Amino acid sequence: MADVDHVVDPAVAERVFGDRLPLARRYAEHLVTTGVERGLIGPREAPRIWERHVLNCAVVAELLPDGARLVDVGSGAGLPGIPLVLARPDLQVALVEPLARRVEWLEEVVADLGIDVRVDRGRAEETAVRRRWEGADVVTARAVAPLHRLAGWALPLLRTGGRVLALKGASASEEIARDAVAVRKLGGGDPAIVLCGTGAVDPPTTVVVVERLRRAGRPARRERR
Hints:
The chain has 225 residues and is an alpha/beta fold. It has a single domain (10-211), classed as 3-Layer(aba) Sandwich (Rossmann fold), CATH 3.40.50.150. 37% of the residues lie in helices and 20% in strands. The protein contains nine helices and seven strands. A seven-stranded mixed sheet has the order 3-2-1-4-5-7-6, with helices on both faces. α6 (100-113) links the parallel β2 (92-97) and β3. Keywords: Cytoplasm, Methyltransferase, rRNA processing, S-adenosyl-L-methionine, Transferase.
């Protein structure tokens, strides 16, 4: 079992989480114990839980406005939603997850950590879920779906000007090239890549950012001259 007291760089973890670092350690402990036992995290991920999961997600907080309403879709083991609210307690976070066993685990972890986070069983594309969480400032997702499909689920949850933050891997550029037109048709702006946590995590976290410009199917207004 991984030693959750071992952090790649304790100074970095303290800078990211501040006085909530003990809660981040407790969350990491949940991930490498019951998270592995109940199939939310692979056993091989346990030794690198900080660099690949906890810190990798938490550094995305640098992209979030103060007091943002955030919906984490396909939340799974609470990534990135839980690390983000641990790093930024000013956030209002909802974790949306369709699988009952994962929802049960998330509810147990949220209760144990004593954090103000909502857990909602459902899919982002469901009408009831959209009605509950529409108007969000930010929608996050990690390893949930290809960009064009994720945009179709996430953009309707956002207010105009809100942003999708999709944590992606090395193929992010290729995915943008393939899906950019579809994203624009869904009411999103041009997808852009932002690297988060430079100097804190290696490699930095790759985030694809898409702003909601309008409702799907509505053409962009042309400026009058």
